[in-house]
Write a structure and sequence with these properties.
Number of helices: 12
Number of strands: 20
Shape: globular
Structural class: alpha+beta
Length: 448
């Protein structure tokens, strides 16, 4: 384990968990890599009380809040009021000195505050002015989320800051632009800022909202009751204010003859990273990890190595952390981990599965079978849905994922969790089904 140390930013460390032993001619090496950032001062200080920073202290940051103001936000009228209150609560949570703006999203993207393509600088006066501007928000128009994201990107790009972040709220489907337009906007914004996305109520499309968060390395969630928006927005902004290092990438080097099968985040959520690789030199690729504060995340790597005889060993992969710099250079964060392969004729050694690898393989399968089960339920394949959701109950029970188990129990009647025997409920609240789908990728850490 290596540690990167620098004043006022987190120290990064990398730990590798694996069973390095392979049978003769074995080719597949699996490892869980835990990346941890500590000592940045975000836990119990900036997150709990962001105004404890003096102006100019803390990481430079910019935030754009995108608030759905389409016509559906007026049904019921309290929804728009809750959205205004939530945005105001998020603005109150901004650290002094952070650049920010508010965008009203319909089929267009209108700058509510400060306007004219500018960002305001958070302080007592600008917070109050922004909240006054929020009072003028009203519902009317369509929904074209890609235009909101592009406007946020232009605003965030105008600030010379380390951290660029968006918060997006929607209550409906993206009906006033094509899926291709939204995808093009996400492709244009990816790597330029992170974005948390929230769906309020039950009239929005889960895969749209989770897709936005996934593409922009943020979080997604449902706020079924609009009255809960203020608390959720406050938590989101507190987390954003705790980010201190932007654009971290996991750099993976493999030797000649070895290839990367997959790279995925497995905690705190499952997120596929394999297709996001950018080449960084001979046999080296970078995988984006987004912005970091004081936190820990786990990644599952799988590398295919050339087969070898008993007694041989090799370095299967080298893991490090870097931050891309202008001009194509990178800043190394110093933390490094090694993934090894050792060929043995000891059957017990080569067939043993590392506990971390086993746990997260199950968590990834849990997320997958929930999605598959809900999709089958929607198209009327009740037998298929029962089988998939039964397997989900079994996996959630075995791994101790109590939160997911509770969500599953609102969709199925559990007969025997250990065997995955369930019956589909005949009547399921739409909010319960959407909550399960939205939170299906949330995982629990492996038990030490």
């Amino acid at each position: 384990m290596a540690i990167f140390s620098k004043s006022n930013v987190p120290q990064f460390s990398v730990d590798v968990y694996q069973n390095e032993y392979l049978p003769e001619d074995g080719r597949e090496v699996n490892a869980v890599v835990t990346v941890t950032a500590t000592g940045g001062g975000t836990i119990g200080s900036a997150v709990a009380a962001p105004h404890l920073y003096a102006p100019g202290e803390g990481p430079s940051a910019a935030v754009v809040l995108m608030v759905d103001c389409s016509g559906s936000m007026d049904h019921p009228p309290t929804k728009m009021r809750n959205a205004r209150d939530a945005t105001g609560a998020a603005i109150d949570t901004l650290r002094d000195g952070v650049h920010f703006a508010v965008v009203a999203g319909t089929h267009l993207a209108r700058e509510v505050y400060p306007g004219d393509g500018r960002l305001a600088v958070a302080g007592p006066d600008t917070r109050e002015q922004a909240k006054q501007a929020l009072r003028k928000l009203s519902a009317g128009g369509g929904t074209a989320i890609g235009t909101w994201l592009r406007r946020a990107d232009r605003l965030l790009a105008s600030a010379d800051v380390a951290i660029r972040h968006g918060i997006l709220l929607t209550d409906g489907r993206n009906e006033h632009e094509s899926p291709e337009d939204l995808r093009a906007a996400l492709d244009a914004c990816a790597g330029r800022f992170t974005c948390d996305a929230r769906g309020v109520g039950t009239d929005w499309e889960v895969k749209e909202v989770t897709g936005i968060a996934s593409a922009l390395l943020g979080t997604a969630d449902i706020v079924a009751d609009p009255a809960g928006l203020a608390a959720d927005f406050t938590r989101m902004m507190e987390t954003a204010m705790g980010k201190e290092v932007a654009d971290v990438s996991l750099r993976l080097w493999t030797p000649a003859g070895a290839t990367v099968t997959f790279v995925k985040q497995v905690a705190p959520t499952v997120e596929e990273l394999t297709g996001r690789r950018t080449e960084a030199g001979p046999r080296t690729g970078d995988y984006p990890l987004g912005s970091w504060g004081d936190e820990s995340r786990d990644y599952h790597l799988c590398v295919a190595v050339p087969p070898a005889a008993v007694g041989r060993e090799m370095l299967a992969a080298r893991v490090s952390l870097v931050i891309p710099q202008p001009g194509g250079s990178v800043q190394s964060l110093g933390a490094q981990g090694l993934v090894r392969a050792v060929w043995t004729d000891d059957l017990a050694a080569s067939t043993s599965i590392n506990p971390q690898v086993a746990h997260y393989t199950g968590q990834a399968e849990l997320a997958e079978v929930i999605q598959e089960g809900l999709d089958l339920r929607k198209v009327g394949d009740m037998d298929g849905a029962t089988a998939k959701l039964g397997r989900a109950v079994q996996l959630a029970s075995a791994s101790g994922n109590a939160d997911t188990a509770k969500l599953l129990a609102k969709v199925v009647d559990v007969v025997d969790a250990a065997t995955g025997t369930v019956r589909l409920k005949t009547k399921v609240e739409e909010a319960d089904e959407m909550t399960l789908e939205t939170r299906s990728t949330k995982t629990v850490r492996v038990k030490k």
